[in-house]
Write a structure and sequence with these properties.
This is S-ribosylhomocysteine lyase. It is an enzyme of class 4 (lyase). Belongs to the LuxS family. It catalyses: S-(5-deoxy-D-ribos-5-yl)-L-homocysteine = (S)-4,5-dihydroxypentane-2,3-dione + L-homocysteine. This protein is of the alpha+beta class. 33% of the residues lie in helices and 21% in strands. The chain is built from three helices and four strands, in the order E-E-H-E-E-H-H. It has a four-stranded antiparallel sheet with strand order 1-2-4-3. Strand 3 (72-77) and strand 4 (83-89) form a beta hairpin. It is globular.
């Protein structure tokens, strides 16, 4: 079997950052997949599930209601719990996605109240939420993007 592209990235050298993972085209439509690495794989603790779940709910809510909602294909967590995938319609670069990600982080950091979609009729694990820890991880990620943005995979 062929090794998928994401398994060819050296995760021992990968830092937190915003990376273009791949671009796919079918029938003239292009989608761009981004890795939003909130933590450095294999060197920092992975994100705890309640915080990861809260960021997923808040991030998806923001993105699907943003001025760029028509570009959003998907936002969701990585199985390894080091971050999230963001898939956008179009031939996009990390520089194109960076302002949107910054806005999403600001939304999460300022959010107060009930987590959208966190009711038993809306979510299969609605009780597993942690807004305080979601803000902690998001603040770390937003600071990194402002101070030392990493927008390319290590060579």
């Amino acid at each position: 079997m062929r090794k998928i592209a994401s398994f060819t990235v050296d995760h021992l050298r990968l830092e937190s950052g915003l990376y273009l993972s791949r671009k796919d085209e079918k029938d003239g439509a292009v989608v761009s997949t981004f890795d939003l690495r909130f933590t450095a794989p294999n060197r920092e603790p992975v994100m705890d599930m309640p915080a990861l779940h809260t960021i997923e709910h808040l991030g998806a809510t923001f993105l699907r209601n943003s001025s760029r909602a028509d570009e959003i294909v998907y936002f969701g967590p990585m199985g390894c719990r080091t971050g999230f995938y963001l898939i956008l319609f179009g031939d996009r670069s990390p520089e194109d996605a960076l302002p949107l990600i910054g806005e999403m982080c600001s939304f999460i950091l300022s959010y107060e109240g009930e987590i959208p979609g966190a009711r038993p009729e809306e979510c299969g694990n609605y009780l597993e939420q942690n807004l305080a820890m979601a803000k902690y991880y998001t603040a770390r990620y937003a600071r990194m993007l402002e101070e030392t943005p990493r927008l390319r995979y290590p060579d």
